[in-house]
Amino acid sequence: MTLLVVGVSHHTAPVALLERLSVAAADTDALLGALAGQPHVDEAVVLSTCNRVEVYAGVNAFHGALAEIGSVLAERAGVDVADLVPYLYVRYDADAVRHAFRVAGGLDSMVVGEAQILGQLREAYGRAGDAETVGRLLHELMQQALRVGKRVHAETGIDRAGQSVVTAALALGAGDVAGRPALVIGAGAMGSLALATLSRAHAGPLYVANRGADRAARAAQLHGATAVAYGDLATAIADVDIVVSATASVDQVLTRDLVSAAVTGRDRPLVVLDLAVPRDVEPAVAELPGVVLVDLARLGDALIDSDAGVVDQAAAEEIVAGEVEAYLNWLRGSNVAPTVAALRARADEVVTYELRRLAQRRSDLSEEQRREVAHTVHRVVQRLLHSPTVRARQLAATPDGDQYAAVLRELFDLDVLGEDAADVGRAVGVEFLAEGGAR
């Protein structure tokens, strides 16, 4: 089985496309089902955040699976596959493992070193587990990626500044927030992070609004804020200097008319941070006098043009490189296990057959003698196989180690169940999708 990652992120796609591809929690099961229902996709995990949508898949044929995943994503975005191709990236096998570990460590994030991705990856893995679309390959990958992400954050200074999309957006749009009243719309993970960040920066008083009033009340209690009714957003906005909107709504939460009504007659600026995908704030809000709008598109541009979020990544990258090699060694070694098992099974078959023939020819042997002969023959065979099979596992853990398993299968004519015989087309990238799909 081949490991494949297909996705788009802030590195490759505009926010408008990320919005069309973004997957709400309620839609995840349907998308996982669509992916796992494809003939060449055996396992699937979907990671959807404010700046990436990625499919991690265990596939039985590279070409076919790539075409199928591309088609599913294109259908979700409502575009032709050929129009989606320029924004896609594809990683497979070792590169897929490296990508997963870098994502978990925050090395591929818009704000390098942010730790929120670990929780998002854990949730994505959990949803796929609940949907029963993960098997041995992705279970091991996700568990190791989460472990590596924790190690990167624990052993390096990559997140020493507590960097996140929220802190970067606040720095860009609001500067010093101490003593300034703020409203957070949304009480999910990003909304809670925004409340915590504002509280640590001594902003206040703090307010929180959410469609579900109970969740808003819990978030308010946890962060020393005041819950306000979702229907009273215009009134709440009029009383604050900073608004952070981070809901999971598919519709715009703050329209130009709503914000215009809230800022009419104000004599101080209003900073609006839109951290949602799809966007919560109508772009025309930026045209209102005295309103500063920062969305993920503007934030991404600002981070590219500055040193914001840039940290010393050498130690983190070194950890990832070592963990990738260790994982690949494990994977190579585990891939030879079915071949070794098949070889031992073949040896057992031969021994059983010969002992049966001996019993027919030498009916004069007692039961004790038969047991002694059987025991001796089994010991001889196991001792003969021990060194070659141990060495095969060791060699399989080296680069190009799969050739040793192939040699064993060829020499002993072994039929290994579950062997991945697919041509994964290593040299073929996303351009394959543009050529018309699976072969």
From TrEMBL:
It catalyses: (S)-4-amino-5-oxopentanoate + tRNA(Glu) + NADP(+) = L-glutamyl-tRNA(Glu) + NADPH + H(+). It comes from the Bacteria. Substrate binds at T49, C50, N51, R52, S109, E114, A115, Q116, Q120. NADP(+) binds at G186, A187, G188, A189, M190, G191. The keyword NADP applies. Gene3D superfamilies: Glutamyl-tRNA reductase, N-terminal domain, NAD(P)-binding Rossmann-like Domain. Homodimer. During catalysis, the active site Cys acts as a nucleophile attacking the alpha-carbonyl group of tRNA-bound glutamate with the formation of a thioester intermediate between enzyme and glutamate, and the concomitant release of tRNA(Glu). The thioester intermediate is finally reduced by direct hydride transfer from NADPH, to form the product GSA. This is Glutamyl-tRNA reductase. It comes from Luedemannella helvata. The lineage of its organism: Bacteria, Bacillati, Actinomycetota, Actinomycetes, Micromonosporales.
